[in-house]
Amino acid sequence: ITPVVRSNTRLFAGDSxxxxxxxxxxxxxxxxxxxxxxxxxxxxxxxxxxxSDPINRREDDFEDAPMFKVLLIGDESYDQAHVIERMCELMxxxxxxxxxxIFKQAQAGGDAMCGKYPLEIAELYKEQLxxxxxxxxxxVQEDKA
Length: 145
What we know:
Layout: E1 67-73, H1 80-90, H2 96-109, E2 111-118, H3 119-130, E3 138-142
Helix pairs in contact: 1-2
Protein backbone atom coordinates (compact mmCIF):
# COMPACT_ATOMS: atom_id res chain seq x y z
CA ILE A 1 0.00 0.00 0.00
CA THR A 2 1.29 3.40 -0.95
CA PRO A 3 0.81 6.23 1.47
CA VAL A 4 -1.02 9.31 0.09
CA VAL A 5 0.80 12.57 0.59
CA ARG A 6 -1.26 15.68 0.76
CA SER A 7 0.17 19.09 0.35
CA ASN A 8 -1.49 22.23 1.62
CA THR A 9 -1.55 24.93 -1.04
CA ARG A 10 -3.20 28.22 -0.46
CA LEU A 11 -5.52 29.63 -3.06
CA PHE A 12 -5.42 33.15 -1.72
CA ALA A 13 -2.82 35.85 -1.58
CA GLY A 14 -0.06 35.58 0.95
CA ASP A 15 0.49 37.57 4.10
CA SER A 16 2.28 40.35 2.26
CA UNK A 17 -0.88 41.19 0.22
CA UNK A 18 -3.24 42.60 2.84
CA UNK A 19 -5.44 44.45 0.31
CA UNK A 20 -7.03 41.32 -1.10
CA UNK A 21 -5.27 40.95 -4.44
CA UNK A 22 -3.30 42.68 -7.14
CA UNK A 23 -4.36 46.17 -8.22
CA UNK A 24 -6.03 46.71 -11.58
CA UNK A 25 -3.69 48.40 -14.03
CA UNK A 26 -4.61 51.90 -15.16
CA UNK A 27 -3.84 52.85 -18.73
CA UNK A 28 -1.07 55.40 -19.23
CA UNK A 29 -2.78 56.90 -22.31
CA UNK A 30 -5.73 59.19 -21.63
CA UNK A 31 -9.07 58.27 -23.26
CA UNK A 32 -11.28 61.15 -24.33
CA UNK A 33 -15.00 60.39 -24.46
CA UNK A 34 -17.10 62.64 -26.64
CA UNK A 35 -20.87 62.53 -26.60
CA UNK A 36 -22.78 63.40 -29.75
CA UNK A 37 -26.48 64.10 -29.36
CA UNK A 38 -28.85 64.31 -32.28
CA UNK A 39 -32.35 65.74 -32.15
CA UNK A 40 -35.08 63.66 -33.66
CA UNK A 41 -37.24 65.37 -36.25
CA UNK A 42 -40.84 65.62 -35.20
CA UNK A 43 -42.95 63.13 -37.08
CA UNK A 44 -46.25 64.36 -38.37
CA UNK A 45 -49.18 62.24 -37.29
CA UNK A 46 -51.93 61.86 -39.84
CA UNK A 47 -54.72 61.34 -37.36
CA UNK A 48 -54.84 61.08 -33.63
CA UNK A 49 -56.53 57.93 -32.54
CA UNK A 50 -57.64 56.72 -29.19
CA UNK A 51 -56.71 53.24 -27.98
CA SER A 52 -60.40 52.31 -28.04
CA ASP A 53 -60.78 53.19 -31.75
CA PRO A 54 -60.49 50.27 -34.19
CA ILE A 55 -57.69 50.45 -36.74
CA ASN A 56 -59.03 50.97 -40.24
CA ARG A 57 -56.47 49.74 -42.77
CA ARG A 58 -58.55 50.27 -45.90
CA GLU A 59 -61.01 52.75 -47.20
CA ASP A 60 -64.65 51.71 -47.05
CA ASP A 61 -66.08 52.14 -50.52
CA PHE A 62 -69.67 51.00 -50.50
CA GLU A 63 -72.03 51.37 -53.38
CA ASP A 64 -75.72 51.86 -52.71
CA ALA A 65 -78.02 49.12 -53.96
CA PRO A 66 -80.12 50.16 -56.95
CA MET A 67 -83.67 51.01 -55.94
CA PHE A 68 -86.84 49.84 -57.68
CA LYS A 69 -90.34 51.30 -57.61
CA VAL A 70 -93.31 49.12 -56.73
CA LEU A 71 -96.29 50.34 -58.75
CA LEU A 72 -99.94 49.59 -58.03
CA ILE A 73 -101.77 49.21 -61.34
CA GLY A 74 -105.29 50.61 -61.31
CA ASP A 75 -108.24 48.29 -62.15
CA GLU A 76 -111.98 48.95 -61.95
CA SER A 77 -112.65 45.51 -60.43
CA TYR A 78 -110.69 46.27 -57.23
CA ASP A 79 -112.44 46.40 -53.87
CA GLN A 80 -110.90 49.44 -52.16
CA ALA A 81 -111.03 47.97 -48.64
CA HIS A 82 -109.31 44.74 -49.78
CA VAL A 83 -106.48 46.57 -51.63
CA ILE A 84 -105.81 48.95 -48.71
CA GLU A 85 -105.84 46.08 -46.20
CA ARG A 86 -103.40 43.95 -48.24
CA MET A 87 -101.02 46.87 -48.89
CA CYS A 88 -100.88 47.66 -45.15
CA GLU A 89 -100.29 43.97 -44.29
CA LEU A 90 -97.46 43.48 -46.79
CA MET A 91 -95.56 46.75 -46.78
CA UNK A 92 -93.96 47.63 -43.48
CA UNK A 93 -93.84 51.40 -44.00
CA UNK A 94 -97.44 51.77 -45.22
CA UNK A 95 -100.41 53.00 -43.18
CA UNK A 96 -104.08 53.10 -44.17
CA UNK A 97 -104.06 56.78 -45.20
CA UNK A 98 -101.08 56.28 -47.52
CA UNK A 99 -102.61 53.12 -48.98
CA UNK A 100 -105.92 54.92 -49.63
CA UNK A 101 -104.22 57.84 -51.42
CA ILE A 102 -102.10 55.41 -53.52
CA PHE A 103 -105.26 53.44 -54.42
CA LYS A 104 -107.03 56.63 -55.55
CA GLN A 105 -104.01 57.74 -57.63
CA ALA A 106 -103.83 54.31 -59.31
CA GLN A 107 -107.55 54.38 -60.16
CA ALA A 108 -107.32 57.91 -61.55
CA GLY A 109 -103.99 57.72 -63.41
CA GLY A 110 -103.56 54.04 -64.28
CA ASP A 111 -100.76 53.35 -61.79
CA ALA A 112 -99.25 54.80 -58.60
CA MET A 113 -95.95 54.30 -56.81
CA CYS A 114 -96.18 52.42 -53.50
CA GLY A 115 -92.51 52.90 -52.57
CA LYS A 116 -88.86 52.43 -53.51
CA TYR A 117 -87.10 49.25 -52.39
CA PRO A 118 -84.08 47.07 -53.30
CA LEU A 119 -84.84 44.62 -56.11
CA GLU A 120 -85.50 41.52 -53.99
CA ILE A 121 -87.89 43.30 -51.65
CA ALA A 122 -89.71 45.02 -54.54
CA GLU A 123 -90.20 41.65 -56.29
CA LEU A 124 -91.42 40.11 -53.03
CA TYR A 125 -94.08 42.80 -52.61
CA LYS A 126 -95.17 42.42 -56.24
CA GLU A 127 -95.52 38.62 -55.88
CA GLN A 128 -97.44 38.93 -52.62
CA LEU A 129 -99.89 41.41 -54.17
CA UNK A 130 -100.42 39.16 -57.21
CA UNK A 131 -101.08 36.15 -54.93
CA UNK A 132 -103.83 37.99 -53.09
CA UNK A 133 -107.38 36.73 -53.56
CA UNK A 134 -108.78 38.61 -55.47
CA UNK A 135 -105.58 39.42 -57.37
CA UNK A 136 -104.02 42.90 -57.09
CA UNK A 137 -101.98 43.89 -60.14
CA UNK A 138 -98.63 45.53 -59.57
CA UNK A 139 -95.34 46.13 -61.36
CA VAL A 140 -91.67 46.76 -60.55
CA GLN A 141 -89.64 49.44 -62.39
CA GLU A 142 -86.06 50.56 -61.92
CA ASP A 143 -85.74 53.98 -60.29
CA LYS A 144 -83.80 56.16 -62.74
CA ALA A 145 -83.07 58.93 -60.23
